[in-house]
Amino acid sequence: MTTVSKASSKKSSKSITPPPKTPTPEPSIKTANLDQLKVNQQVLSRITPEIEDGWFYSAQVISIDGEKVRVSYSSKIVDVTMADIVKLSGPDVTLEAEATVIARHPHYQQTYAPGVIVSSSPLQIRFYDGTESIIPKAEVHLVDFERFEDFVDNIIQLESRWVNESVVARDDKTGIYKLGTVKERVANAHEYVIEWRGDNTSTIQHYSCIFGKYSKAKSLQTGDHVIACSDKNTWHYYPGTISKAENNTVDIDFVCNTTIESANPKEAFYITPEYFNLAKEYYLAQLEGSTAFSESSMSSVSD
Questions:
Q1: Using one digit for the tens of pLDDT, what is the confidence trace for 229-279?
Q2: Partners of residue 80 on adjacent β-strands
Q3: Residue 296 backbone phi and psi in degrees, to 5
Q4: What is the phi/psi pair of residue 248, to 5°?
Q5: Which residue windows are coiled coil (predicted)?
């Protein structure tokens, strides 16, 4: 892997406030009412055998046998249950504030999560993890409150797997992503205590800024955005953009004005354009603040 330095540059940027906390609902077990489910119907489904994250993905019904449903997902055939299926809401369905839904999450490609409608015009969704975003109506699908609670509880249980895992997490002081270990989950929140590798200091970080074994994966292509290591001497990770993807390697241009060539794509974590823009903005804001503080300190010494 080759590292190539580029000329440095500065951009003004505003700071970004982490998503608010969301209470964890009490566990409950409910069944789905999908009597009118049909073969070849487009649905949203948890892909439990393949992706154990509790989130939903676009799928097509292949066959139905009682509570068992066979679906096609990403060119694969997967067996799920009725409890894993959410029907799509048609264009004529009215979406009102406070309704519970499954909607496309802005931080992940074609991935859907539980949320609540905050505003119907524009259609703003507050997701179970505290993320809020305006989502197109075609990407928002109604579910009843009891199923919503089940879905959220299932995701929370799966998120507990991060504890004791080695991860890459954002250091909020710098906007750089660093190596650490998840020590515990903060009660009633989507945050974790991260112990940094090397100095054993700890911080609390929102799960959306943590990457590792259970992060959502994607086959990387030119133009995709990632969090990846720019220098294995420091093991610092930055937001970047893939400039070339071929022969099972990728070249990445980072926001820190460096490039790596022929990197292993399995060592990079996919992020959406929306997440990339936020991560880049946050990093540049911390960099600008650090530079301003340094210049101020030097001025004081000179005086």
A1: 999 999 999 999 999 999 999 999 999 999 999 999 999 999 989 899 999
A2: 69
A3: -65, -40
A4: 60, 25
A5: none
How long a stretch of residues is the chain?
303
Question: pLDDT tens digits for 50-61?
Answer: 778 899 999 999
What is the SS3 string spanning the chain?
Answer: CEEEECCCCCCCCCCCCCCCCCCCCCCCCCCCCCCCCCCCCEEEECCCCCCCCCCEEEEEEEEEECCEEEEEECCEEEEEEHHHEEECCCCCCCCCCCCEEEEECCCCCCCEEEEEEEEECCEEEEECCCCEEECCHHHEEECCHHHHHHHHHHHHHHHHHHCCCEEEEEECCCCEEEEEEEEEECCCCCEEEEEECCCCCEEEEEHHHEEECCCCCCCCCCCCEEEEEEECCCCEEEEEEEEEEECCEEEEEECCCEEEEEECHHHCEEECHHHHHHHHHHHHHHHHHHHHHHHHHHHHHHC
